[in-house]
Amino acid sequence: MLKIFKPSLYVILDLDLPGLSKDPLTLAEDLCTGGVDILQLRAKNSSGKYLFEIGKKLRELTRKNKKILVINDRVDIAQAVAADGVHLGQEDLPVEYARAILGKDKIIGISTHSLAQARKAHLSKVDYLSVGPVFKSPTKPELKPLGTVFLKKIVKISRLPVVAIGGINLNNLPEVLACGVNSVAVISSILRSKDVLETVKKFKELLHYGR
Amino acid sequence: MLKIFKPSLYVILDLDLPGLSKDPLTLAEDLCTGGVDILQLRAKNSSGKYLFEIGKKLRELTRKNKKILVINDRVDIAQAVAADGVHLGQEDLPVEYARAILGKDKIIGISTHSLAQARKAHLSKVDYLSVGPVFKSPTKPELKPLGTVFLKKIVKISRLPVVAIGGINLNNLPEVLACGVNSVAVISSILRSKDVLETVKKFKELLHYGR
């Protein structure tokens, strides 16, 4: 289980995101300094070698800063860099196999986009589920937003920590927090902001005092 | 080490290859029936879920037919489907980490494209190296062929089994075998042939009698 103060800030360092303001490692340093709780490395279009190299650097950085590091999709990269866990999508390796490889102590999260997927996640050995997109997402604009009424419903029935994702920014953050989520996952509104460090700090402020 | 009669037939079932004559599993059945020794699953553009599903089916099939199954790139998929090993490219997870994850009993192969890479491979814990492209390859036409003079040189200095790869067909096979390789890796000239089973059989004939 995620032993993280609720609500926590979960940032997905998506290396495929166009318009990243800095290089990945500098971004990650800003995120750590600003107070990110969980950092996910996502890079669907990168080679295993690059993922490994950047993952190893992020592992050093997150260990030093006592942050959680999760690797998207690639269980082998998570093992190789000794990450805290993996985040799996519906099209990734099935949870039971990832669990068998990683053992019980690693974190496994899964993306869910419907009530049925959220229910199914509860029958698998995951530690948390992400639910989204809550709002229209700049990174996945083709997906229909689920909305906060739906999010609230999932939080109510979920026995697992819920990470809200998709189009979350400083303006709609209070509405998301009001749903009782354990964590908010953010990509664009932090990574594309002019001052990443400042934006992370604002997110953290709202997470701790703005509920 | 690869406990395979020399020379063996190594076929790469590349799911991204345009113009595959049949569905992957039917192709694999033909390959097994025809006498492939090592089957590699390669699908750079497939999801982890799909790779896992097709990998599991190939595992059943290759186990039944006593063939070696190797997964390209993805160490986690190899673990999940209990493949015999992985094949790594120069841009994949470094060998030492793949070895740490898989343990000493699994096969790890690496692609090499130069003398320097072949030498470096000998310092790592791999079980074989592939060398290529020997000829102009239909699947990687941008790469400069290394030629059979070079191949022969590598075979001479290599303490590890050498798998020749790249543009190998029934016409140039005798020239490749004359270099003393342990195995020939074939993609297009088998998978794109009109009668896959017949072509595999012809390759096997030449491998056993045509040297």
Short description:
2 copies of one chain form a homodimer. With 211 residues, the first copy, chain A, is of the alpha/beta class. The first copy, chain A, is built from 9 helices and 8 strands.
CATH level-two architecture of chain A:
Alpha-Beta Barrel
Oligomer: homodimer
Strand line-up across the major sheet of chain A? 1-2-3-4-5-6-7-8
**Element-level helix/strand string of chain A:** EHEHEHEHEHEHEHEHH
Instruction: Assess the beta-strand content of chain A as a share of residues.
Output: 15-25%
Radius of gyration of chain A: 16 Å
Fraction of residues in H or I helices of chain A:
25-40%
Largest beta-sheet characterization of chain A: 8 strands, parallel, barrel
Structural class of chain A: alpha/beta
Mean pLDDT of chain A: 94
Domains of chain A, number: 1
CATH topology of chain A: TIM Barrel
Q: How far apart, in Å, are the first and last alpha carbons of chain A? A: 23 Å
Q: How would you name the CATH homologous superfamily of chain A?
A: Aldolase class I
Shape of chain A: globular
Low-pLDDT segments, ≥5 res of chain A: none
In DSSP terms (H or I, runs of 4 or more residues), the helix count of chain A works out at: 9
CATH hierarchy class name of chain A:
Alpha Beta
Extended strand count of chain A: 8
